[in-house]
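Purpose: get a first structural picture of the assembly so the mutagenesis plan has something to point at.
Setup: two entries, given in the order below. No constraints added.
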Amino acid sequence: MNTYESEQEQLEALQKWWKENGRAVIFGVLLGAIAIIGWSSWQAYTIQQAEKASRHYGQLLDSAKGNLYEKVTQKGNTLVEGFSNSGYTALASLVIAKAAFQQNDIDKAKTYLQLAMDQETSGAVQQLARLRMARLLMDEGRWEDAITLLDENAGEFSSLYEEIRGDIFLAQGEPAKARSAYDQSLASAVLLGGQSQVRIRTKLDDLMGDDSKRKNTRNMPETE
Amino acid sequence: MLQDIRDRAQGWIAWVIVILICIPFAMWGVYEYLGGSPNVPVANVNGVELTSGQFRQAYRRQQTHLKNLFGANFDLSLLNERDLKRGTLNDLINGEILLQTGLDNGLRIGDRQLAEAIQSRSIFQEEGVFSDAIYQRWLRMFGYSASGFEQEYRRSLLIEQIESAITDTALVGAKDVENILRLQRQKRRISLMTIPRARYMGNQITEEAIVNYHEHNQAEFVTPERVSVSYLELSLDDLPNVPEPTEEELRRLYDHQNVGYVEEDDAKSGTARSFEAARGELLEAFQRSEKAQLFFDTAEQLANLTFENPDTLVIASDALELTIEETGFFDRTGSMVDDVPLAGESADGPADEFADKGDKQSSQDAAPGKAAITNDKKVIALAFSDDVLTVGNNSDPIELGEYHVVVLRRKAHLPASPQPLEAVRDEVTARLDIKQAQERIVQLGNELIEKLHGGETPASIAKTHELTLREKIEIGRDDTSEAREIVDKVFRMPGPESGGIAYDGMVTGAGDFTVIGLEEVIEKALTDADTAIETATRNTLARTYGNDEYQAYIRTLRVGATIDIHEDNL
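Result (structure tokens, whole complex):
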């Protein structure tokens, strides 16, 4: 019987506690529920946005492959403006830059390369975009600006960076400097494909002996 | 309250629940016991394990890909398996890193997009419309589950999104194209004058020079490393004849194969040959199959006995009644060397084996009618393998042909050793002769180049020195009309000053000296007619840049990743 009494007491104590704290508990549970629902809807929303961006990006790629320039621009704007925080912005910028370049819209190409260069999330894309920007600047004859870009950290792109540096020195009429840049480029070119190795080698060979010391070779010729 | 729970827990529902819970615990890990190859990790990328199952699948795909590339009859064993596996693993790791990077950056392939992508594949379509039946059949054919395939396809779509953004978007400027075309299409007009080495051969070589040269170039005058092996050879012919079958056995065979013994003439009537007529053939067939069986049994015993007793062939020899045979010394090319090791040269094989057998080896050439086993590449490779040569174990059985195996072990080993002067005197003399002739033509060549720079013409020099001169040769960078080395040299020479000719020379592979006169570097400016080649060059360059940039991109990602490779699990 003791048990019953104490159970009765317990029940009363519980009721009393509930009267005092009930509101707080309900409020807490509600708050928790809202937080959970909010969090999962946010998750669902981000996923949905990412999937949307992905579909737009897929269409962008298709348009670029089909050389549909207007569609590329349109899809590109949707992506870059509507989904500016998505991971697709950097990739899309590269695609749009290429399309613009093919349309001879160099300014636009540069704008989008700059956008890719500004994407802090991916250092690799930044290095890549810088390389492409340097090529554009070189083609325009803005050598100093190109060199400034090439002076930044090249990382795994160093062979390609040095090749452009060599091209710029060559265009500037500085064969000795160009040769040393090509030399450096070739030194790290083992990781490049065979065609690139041949290309850089050819550029280097063409400058061989292009200073007076090497002319009129009289020393022992190389044997086999 | 608790009592209530206790009372109700006795019911049948509770038992069902308990049993259901038990099952997973009891069956946990059963799959591992049931065989199925264990799914061990082959690599770990940023904490994500790549399993051997994934690897095997990728490797199979790689093999199919190669077969498609080189034709169904392509022999994959021609490729280095280790390299192939490493390459596959490398691709797998790259894929994982790209995937992780993509997901981190918020890339995502939704279900709808995945479905669209799969449905648009023409292999899953019938008359231009996606067919689920075809899709399911395809999945079964390649052993995929639908969810497994879809997961993998999603993965590859995501990687493709990154890849296309980089490989297809490289930029190539007009100046770049112009420069490349300038180099590619450049021609050079040259003259070539050859001073033949043969003309200056036959020099007097002093004894002192010979001795001196031999002393200073000892490393080049060594006998090749050689080894001799003892071996057990098992072939079908060596096996004893099997006992004659009883009539009864033959008759059973006859009944069994009856259908096969229809004589040609009787073929139409379909009458079978009599047992007597087929007897000879039956006997032969019977013995052949019995003997083959005997061969396989013996070969297996041979493999086991030589493996279990890696230090000797004697046990296998006694048990199987095979004679231990021996070869003479042979080198890595398999050519036999007759000379017995000189006194003082110690073979580093086990002393007992070497001493016992003395130098019998010179007489141990192949038995008549049998090719020497030292002609076989596999034999040579194993004889010089670490396990046999250094450790001194018996080799694995080597299959020399159908019903023909050999197990060998090292008998004696002669490391590369210097050759005495007398043995190589002729060669030294010849080399010195060539060297002197070379020096003379180089000296003459340089003198001539000097004279050419001084203003003499190639024609007058060629006449004075009776040399062949070829003038006004126009060559391109990739031309094969002249020797590769000369073309390379020509395109590395500085261009001539205006109006002049640049001269240089080289000793060619044939040993002659060639004087090269570079008369003109010809570079044609691009014209309107070159638009097509410009476009083609631009596209090629863009592709090359794109691929290289993509690889550099992946390498950059790899630098930032933590990668463990377990190559043993490949």
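The two ends of chain B are 59 Å apart (CA to CA).
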